[in-house]
Amino acid sequence: MNLIEYFISCEIFKELLECVQYLHEYKDHFVSQIIHRDLKPDNILIAENAREGRFVRICDFGLAALHNYLNPNHTGGVGTVRYMAPEVRISHLKYTNKCDIYSLGMTTGNNLKHLEINGEITKMEIILDSMCEVMPYKRPDCSHAKLNFTEIENTYFSSFEELEFIGKGLYGYVCKVRNKSTNDIYAIKMIELTGLNYDKTQQLLNELGKLKQITSNYIIELNDLWLESKIIYIRMEYFAINLRDCIHQKQQESDRQPGHVMDVSEYFTSYHIFKNILECVQYLHELNPQIIHKNIKPENFLFYNKPGHKPGFKISDFYINCNMMKNSDDNSMIYTSPELLSECDNITFHTDIYSLGVIAQEIFDCKFEDDIK
User: Fold this and answer.
1) Structural domains of the chain sorted by starting position, each given as residue range(s) with its CATH number in brackets
2) Distance of CA 164 to the CA centre of its chain
3) In this model, does residue 136 exceed pLDDT 70?
4) For the segment 200-235, what is each residue's pLDDT rounded down to a tens digit?
5) Among the ranges 53-67, 89-103, 304-318, 327-341, which has the highest mean pLDDT value?
6) 189 is in an annotated binding site
């Protein structure tokens, strides 16, 4: 199992815990809880579309008995042996809701146990081992397992300190953060998966996983990515200045009125800037398979100037398929090609060329013609 599959499985496990917890905390005038007693993969259903933010449902709990803690006699020996707790197999023993914890641990453990990351045993394996303890009193209840699971899931808040809110874009939010252990500075993009079903979420994670392997001086590299509470977190290199800032600074330093002719120095500065961003987009278009950005704008070109490296621009946000993410961003509309606005099915690299043309007019301070507007 790779890391992407692991985090998807963790999300399913979390929803399963919540389902079982609901049964165990059920109360009315007659009973204090419901024990499922036959949890297994066949009784776990995955919805194609999220309902109230949830994909996982459990079924066949209606065939189980309503239990009262004061009742010493339960129906033993009933269920699927492979997932059955030891105390249920032995019919004369009394069992509690901890039998469901055992079954849930066995069901989930088939996918998640014995997974090592960087050679270390994961916290998830420790939780699953405790759920499958032979002695019921050693197993956690749902709330305790969920609490431990939350510690796994909160990688962002436990590992990073937010230093600055950078901005909101077409696909989510970006923050400047500090790694609490190393003090390294990064940018982390948070993409909310609202409206995406399970298949599209998995497709997006798979695409991001492949793009994480790409390294180049022309792109902002993906250092890491993970899924937490229906949000994808992408950790990237941090650069403070983007192309929009450079255009503004260039205009200020030239002491030229907008619309007036550039001098030779400003023209060649503009030329080198535009040549650099052309090379960034060309790099994406010449990859195999080709990447079409579809969201090119000045904010997505970041300026880097590190010791030992030639100063220049890197392109970001090339890794999100905008056919999946339909969030609107009015600030980007001016750079969007007509075919992309009309949701044409046949989108080619020419849509990025259109966006570059609009940016070129800003870099060289050209006026828009009425028909282009």
Assistant:
1) 3-153 (1.10.510.10), 158-237 (3.30.200.20), 241-364 (1.10.510.10)
2) 20
3) yes
4) 777 888 888 888 888 899 999 899 988 876 788 899
5) 304-318
6) yes
